[in-house]
Write a structure and sequence with these properties.
This protein has 417 residues and is an alpha+beta fold. Strand 1 and strand 2 form a beta hairpin. Helix 7 runs antiparallel to helix 8. The longest helix has 68 residues.
Amino acid sequence: MNQLIPPHGLRPFRYFLAAGWFAGVLSVMPAAASAQTDPAYRDIVTAVLKANPDIRIARLRVDSARAETRIARALPNPSATIAPQVPYQYVLTAPLDVGPVRTERIRAAGAGLSATIADSRDFERQLRFTAGAAYFDLVVAEDRRDLAHDEARMVGELLAADSARVRAGDAPERVLVAGELELAKATTAVAQAHAAVRAARIALQLLMGSGRLDSAFTVARVADAHALDLTLRLHIDSASEARPDVDAAAQRAIASRALDAQARALLLPVPSVALVVQPDAPFANGQNTALGLSLQFPLLNWYGGERERARAGAEQARIAEERARRQARAEAEAAVDQFTAANALRRRYDAALLAKSREAVERDRYAYRAGALSYVELIDALRTWGQIRNDALTATHDAWVAALALNRAFGREIITP
């Protein structure tokens, strides 16, 4: 048996180096992470809401809607006329912008401003969820990277031990061939996990509006998942009370009704007042100035198209408001169910499944060292253990994302990471 070992005499040394490399990487990573102050969840959400270009555009829309209210309140400018005749007359005419047309126009502009503000708040609601989901995507990607390193380290240690057994003649050489394949797979998994971490970091920084993207960007972890351990006592009907999208739909319905009333008010005569100055010759009353009044009647144009369009717009806004309320209720019900299911699965992993799986894989490793378990069976046990740990990480990630979706569905912070 010893005659077959020399061609592979360098393998044990190589395996020991591989195991040492993986252990060294894992030991250095926490020190590198602690050397800087990483942003916490709250810091990241604040940065996203402050610097994200889309939220800045939404706030500019609010400024534009506020300007529309000023336009609606503005009075029309007067017009001046000169009549070159004998005697000369100078006429200053101004429409009287009073009555229901002006009142409903201002009311519609005010409701439009409220709707735009609600749209901005709704965009913040959606962006909070997106930022939170990106944060937890990065957290789970880093956890999976650490898991890949841990699995590669265990494979490296196993190969180093098997190499010693082969040298001693206690195991066949084919064990090393299978081990090389497992090490290659583990190394590939580590590289893929690092790529996933870099992609998650870039995605989060893009949301934050960072000018310079850093592939080494890290975040502070949520201390624990105790915030998820709560009993939900929520009324589904309350979802529409704090939802800004429902508020925006309601404000648009108010604005549409105001525009409908304004269109009907167009049938009323529009008064205009005129000041006439005749400096060369006085009027019959001896004065050089006189007042005039004119009325614009809807004689040729009864504004039928404007009134029909306003009625259709009001009906559309009413339907949109009803749909927004139904959608809010449906999203709230789905969010509660999703969170309940995701959190129940997380609790099962945290309660016993992880501990039992850890004990099982330790027993299998001991049995392999004692010769009671084959190499293939041990590798299969390690894979199962790694899959369970990965599923546990996924369950925790999904529970946090479901909690963020619950906050989004109810329009308020129910669970705080």
